[in-house]
Design a protein that fits this description.
Elements (H helix, E strand, L loop, with lengths): L3 E2 L3 E2 L4 E3 L3 E8 L2 E7 L14 E10 L2 E7 L21 E5 L3 E6 L2 E6 L6 E5 L2 E6 L5 E4 L5 E8 L6 E5 L11 E4 L14 E7 L3 E5 L5 E5 L6 E7 L2 E7 L4 H12 L12 E4 L8 H13 L6 E4 L22 H9 L4 E6 L2 E2 L4 H9 L4 E2 L15 E2 L5 H17 L3 E4 L9 E2 L6 H24 L21 E2 L7 H15 L6 E2 L1 E2 L8 H11 L5 E3 L13 H16 L1 H14 L4 E2 L1 H4 L13 E3 L3 E3 L8 E6 L3 E4 L5 E3 L2 E6 L7 E3 L3 E5 L14 E6 L6 E7 L5 E10 L2 E8 L4 E6 L6 E3 L1 E5 L3 E6 L5 E5 L1
Length: 773
């Protein structure tokens, strides 16, 4: 939201008050409080008829500093508020000197200059990150007498801003106006399903604005050297989040707002859905599943979209008996084929549903200001909205889901949650404007928690479309309604990378696009991309997404990459377990892994899958891949070709290939099962070693399907000697020296030569090996 008219003027009718000088600084062992006058005080009379801003600096945890700007403090705050995980024992150092007042938490400090007008600086380990200066913070009164508080933080030369949720606009947010307001706008506009008031800077810090209502950002737009953010009202609170690198910043941010849960291992397999408006019954469903079996394409999850329930009854959580006369028997038959089951839901209750009367009678639905049930006809005729601020309504809603779980449903696609009205009344008195974005958090939390309660920790997941800050605790999220075009495939990836830099670790998308129907070419290229994502789902709108409807080769391509993903599960699941501890996403923007490489700062058509695999999807019908490799000797995991990095590469690939490049010095855990994502990863595992340099160490940690570490292997190279150590499970495993044709000796194992390199079958019980190259 813009308040100024160029650099010199404010917009007509706008009154801007900004701090001109610091009048006093109060300090305590935990806090700095700065009183700033919005007028230069020369004589006593100047203290009259002027606005003041109070700025409080505190710290909720090491390396994080909270900043609260207050104009008028008399208004009683109304929820909701983001949940924060505060370290009650955080050690803070406060100094209140003659010239400078400082608050330090961990390695992060804020310095307030007491005699230089308004001048503050945020410093991490001696390096200035950003700051707030002349005319930066301010209070605005608009022509309609509404008020806003803003802050402007400095942008440095060459500084780039990322994140702010799952945004499909350009990956680097500089130059953009971004209003955080959850909307159902597809992937082709500036609107977003997942608005997160957190951004990340390549200068090595993050900023979290602690407001669930609409936050308006001007990122190098209104003032090209600043990031401005503003909220309505009389107060503004934000956090500066530091760290030694971008990964540590994400770690600290997700410590504050919540770490992601670990999705169940089965959820990483291939998902197939009925699609949205297609006609289907049990016979149709079985034809899809049997067709996959006949073509030997491993299928792991079947999803029933909206029309598993009767039209105009969404959501009543009851199978449409006209289409599915024996739902329990059907689910039993599907699960006997080794499938997990997902069903579509949302939080809207249609007037035709029997639940509408239940909800109305018991006060479980959001109300109008007159006390009636709020209703409209968008999506479902006369629909109401579940009031998740009412604990009884949450239990009521969860009980409906428990009945489905008891039938054999394993997870729920929590669709929608963006179309939330602001002229309503909530059970707990929450501010309806703040609830617009926050509603989805309560919705997904309610569904996730009933799954976790019934299935256990690490066995719960949702498939969610909408989210806000903290929603990363309830994975998985998918990218919404994309189109069947290469442009939409690219914008989908941009959205996923932005979400990953906003604290979300697990993400998926509709393979082949949701709207329209992909060409066979696009379907096959998107299949490779989709199966090299954390989660992989075939889904569409008006047509089925089974591969044989595209062409015969599509089945072969889908089979190829589904099996590849299953073999990569030990690596992917280990990466996922790491994500639950660190908040670092499974699919990572290049800047996250290579913060010192300037070429990686703007890349949005490739990504790192974990810390060791680079994926460059192909976005054209010519099969041309153009991608950037950082320094070092990179190996194509599929072909074994070695490519020298530090440059752009252009190649042509058939449908069974793409740039899947292994970072030099990596040890990749490859499993022995290509049919399922959930198996004993440590049993028969092959650890592939790539381009280990002299004096370097590579390691791999293998977990079981519950996320418990089972095997740790390290390889160190000194000259032509490889020293290998293993700790953990005593199961058969082997070491594959990729690109090495032969070895002189292997003490502790048996060496054999192969197309990929030398394979060392480790002797049973051996914990240390020595290999001479």
């Amino acid at each position: 939201m813009k308040f100024t008219d160029g650099y010199w003027h404010v917009r007509p009718g706008v009154t801007l008050n900004y701090p001109v000088e610091v009048r006093s600084v109060r300090s305590s062992p935990e806090q700095l409080t700065v009183l700033a006058s919005c007028k230069k005080i020369i004589k006593r009379g100047d203290t009259l008829n002027t606005a003041i801003l109070t700025v409080n600096y505190t710290s909720p945890m090491p390396d994080v500093i909270a900043v609260e700007l207050v104009h008028h403090s008399g208004k009683l705050p109304k929820g909701p508020v983001f949940e924060k995980h505060v370290d009650e024992g955080v050690q803070v150092s406060v100094e209140n000197g003659e010239e400078i007042a400082t608050l330090t938490s961990g390695k992060l400090s804020v310095q307030v200059n007491k005699n230089e007008g308004w001048s503050t600086h945020f410093i991490y380990n001696g390096k200035r990150l950003t700051g707030s200066g002349y005319k930066s913070p301010g209070h605005m009164k608009m022509p309609d007498q509404s008020t806003f508080i803003r802050e402007q933080l400095d942008l440095g030369v060459g500084e780039y801003i990322y994140g702010l949720g799952e945004r499909f606009t350009p990956f680097v947010k500089n130059g953009q106006v971004v209003d955080l307001w959850n909307e159902d706008g597809g992937t082709c506009s500036e609107q977003a399903y997942k608005n997160v008031p957190f951004y990340l800077s390549n200068y090595g810090y993050g900023v979290f604005v602690d407001h669930p209502e609409r936050v308006s950002y001007e990122v190098a737009s209104e003032v090209v050297s600043k990031v401005q953010f503003s909220v309505p009202g009389e107060t503004l609170k934000y956090y500066i989040i530091g760290g030694s690198n971008l990964k540590e910043v994400l770690n600290n941010y997700t410590k504050l707002t919540g770490k992601p849960a670990l999705p169940p291992a089965w959820s990483y397999g291939l998902w197939l859905t009925t699609s949205f408006t297609t006609s289907y019954d049990e016979g149709t469903v079985n034809s899809f599943i049997d067709g996959m079996i006949e073509r030997e394409i491993p299928l792991h999850v079947f999803h029933f979209d909206c029309f598993w329930m009767k039209e105009f009854h969404w959501c009543d959580f009851q199978w449409d008996k006209d289409v599915f006369p024996d739902p329990q028997g059907m689910l039993n038959r599907l699960k006997s084929k080794g499938l997990n089951i997902s069903v579509w839901i949302n939080s809207y209750i249609a007037q035709q549903s029997y639940l509408f009367d239940e909800g109305k009678e018991n006060g479980y639905l959001v109300k109008t200001k007159d006390g009636d049930v709020w209703q409209w006809d968008r999506w479902q005729g006369g629909m109401g909205l579940v009031d998740f601020t009412n604990p009884a309504a949450v239990r009521w809603y969860q009980d409906k889901l428990r009945a489905l779980i008891d039938m054999g449903v394993d997870c729920f696609k929590t669709d929608f949650g963006e179309r939330i009205p602001t002229d309503v009344v909530y059970f707990d008195g929450s501010d309806p404007v703040k609830m617009h974005n926050y509603y989805t958090h309560l919705y997904n939390k309610a569904v996730f928690e009933v799954l976790e309660e019934t299935k256990g920790k690490n066995e719960a997941m949702v498939f969610a479309r909408s989210a806000t800050a903290g929603g990363q605790q309830f994975p998985v999220h998918w990218g919404g309604d994309c189109s069947a075009t290469y442009n939409s495939m690219a914008e989908t990836l941009r959205g996923g990378l932005s979400l990953g830099l906003s604290g979300f670790s697990f993400w998926s998308h509709d393979i082949g696009g949701f709207e329209s129907t992909a060409t066979p070419d696009l379907y096959k290229r998107w299949s490779a991309f989709g199966l090299l994502s954390s989660h992989s789902r075939l889904h569409g709108s008006q047509s089925y997404r089974v591969p044989w409807l595209f062409d015969d080769e599509a089945s072969d391509v889908l089979r190829h990459f589904t099996k590849l993903k299953s073999t990569l599960m030990p690596y992917l699941y280990g990466t996922s377990v790491e994500a639950t501890r660190t908040g670092v996403p499974v699919m990572r923007a290049m800047v996250l892994e290579f913060p010192g490489d300037a070429a990686c700062e703007t890349l949005d058509r490739q990504y790192m899958l974990g810390d060791s695999l680079l994926v460059a999807p192909i976005f054209n019908d010519e099969g041309t891949a153009k991608y950037y490799l950082p320094e070092g000797r990179w190996t194509n995991f599929l072909s074994g070709n070695v490519v020298e990095g530090g440059r752009w590469v252009q190649e042509r690939h058939d449908y069974f290939s793409l740039p899947l490049m292994v970072r030099p010095g990596s040890l990749i855990a490859v499993g022995a099962n290509d049919l399922r994502p959930d198996y004993d990863y440590a049993d028969g595992i092959a650890l592939h070693l790539f381009e280990l340099g002299d004096g370097e160490t590579a390691s791999a940690s293998i977990c079981d399907v519950s996320g418990v570490h089972e095997l740790e292997v390290k390889v160190t190279r000194q000259g032509r000697t490889l020293t290998v150590t293993a700790e953990g499970a005593d199961k058969p495993w082997e070491l594959v020296l990729r690109g090495i044709a032969n070895v002189a000796s292997a003490d502790g194992g048996t060496a054999s030569e192969g197309d990929l390199g030398v394979t060392i079958a480790v002797d049973r019980g051996v914990r240390a090996l020595s290999i001479e190259l």
